Amino acid sequence: MLTVLGRLLERNSIYVATIFGGAFAFQGFFDVAVNKWWEEHNKAKLWKNVKGKFLEGEVRMKKGKKRFEIACYQNKVQDWRSKVEKDIDEVLQIPQVFINVSKGQVANNDDLQKCFGTTNQDEIIAEILNKGEIQLNEKERNANLQQKQNEFLNIISTKCINPRSKKRYPPSMIEKVLNEVKFHLNPTKPTKIQALDAIKLLVEKQIIPIARAQMKVRITLSKKAYLKTFQDEIKPVIDQIVEEDNNGKQYEIVGIIDPINYRVLVTLIENTDGSNKVAKGEGSIEVLDMSAIKNKTKLDKCIESFL
Question: Which residue numbers delimit the Ribosome maturation protein SDO1/SBDS N-terminal domain (predicted)?
Fold first, then answer.
């Protein structure tokens, strides 16, 4: 009986092996398929969680030849960087590194290891959050642009006046004239520098009567302080001397200056920098007019009449 059974097993061993081998192969294929499905399921679930929220804000970093992104709350990123916010969970919308947040594409471990030298999500997220480029959505970009535009127009408005009335133009008027001369703010360049360029153009074109607003100041110096500082340090920052008087012991100068030079004069005359070039009690500066303009010289009048 045993002999017969042994012969049957021997004869059919190839079939048995084939059956078991096929079963194992199917099991392996099944495991791969399930794992793949689970991975895609998790990605879909992850994307479902972040979808509709990614426009809150993104921080992007290019590392090597790859781009990585994290989804975060826009208003919290700056708080995190300035150390106002210390809980990273309050900053991140989801603790995951993406290669494309808007499409829900998660960064794989091979890319993370190659570019960051680690697959530790926490470490990589911290690096992107601290050093990455903040991406703004359309609403935030428009708000930032409007803020820059308002700042730009206000700088011009505060630095310029109508030389006839000595009154400042409202920002809306400045904007209208700038449109006429086709000067438009570039949001990628410093606002203040562009404002100064715009002022030069407005003064040159004179579409409306406009001049750079200056300050009229009265400087009082002792004879010692005058001889020590006036010619080399004070006079060069005065655009125009309106009056100059002295009684032998005290000198008084009334002049027109650019507002940017006011702090320079205060520092020197009131000795706030500790240089002791003007001793305590030997000098003072007083603002007489915040909307002053330089008086035209005879040469200026001759040039204007010639033109």
Answer: 59-141
